[in-house]
Amino acid sequence: MPSNRPTRDELLEAVVEFLEKRVMPKLDKHTAFHTRVAMNVLNIVRRELEHGPRLDTEERERLEGLLGSEGTLEELNSELCKRIRSGEMDYRNPDLMEHLFLTTMGKVAVDQPIYSAYQRAMEKEEAP
User: Fold this and answer.
1) Most buried of 82, 87, 98, 103 (most Cβ within 10 A)?
2) Using CA atoms, how far apart are residues 45 and 35, in angstroms rounded to an integer?
3) Is cis: bond before 6, omega within 30 of 0?
4) How much is the pTM?
5) Exposure string over 86-101, b if 16+ CB within 10 A, otherwise e
6) What is the dihedral of CA 81, 116, 127, 64, to 10 degrees?
7) pLDDT digits over 2-56, tens only?
8) Alpha-carbon gap, residue 99 to 55, rounded angstroms
9) What is the CA radius of gyration of the chain?
10) Which string of b and e fits 105-114 if b means at least 16 CB within 10 Å?
């Protein structure tokens, strides 16, 4: 059975590599900056495609447990916000705090995995 090559990750990586190695050296500083921004966007999209479905599933499952109800991720997040605004849930709820921490770490893993505070937090989580 033939494989579906190149994969979407390989395609995104090829575009980023082309921009970095072939295009960037020929650009003025202003255009190079905007090209670097575009490359970062492509890398975020790649990480979102790779990790997004799992992170969304984990977030939805945590919310269902936290709220005691089912729904879409958007509906559950809306309900969580409503409960926080009303004071029904706050920082004294350890399950809420863990959910917010894990959700934030997932979003940073996609958006900016080289962020130093994220790296330190992940090291702390992995430590025995």
Assistant:
1) 103
2) 15
3) yes
4) 0.80
5) eeebeeeeeebeebbe
6) 20
7) 677 899 989 999 999 999 999 999 999 999 999 999 999 999 999 999 999 999 9
8) 12
9) 19
10) ebbbbbeeee
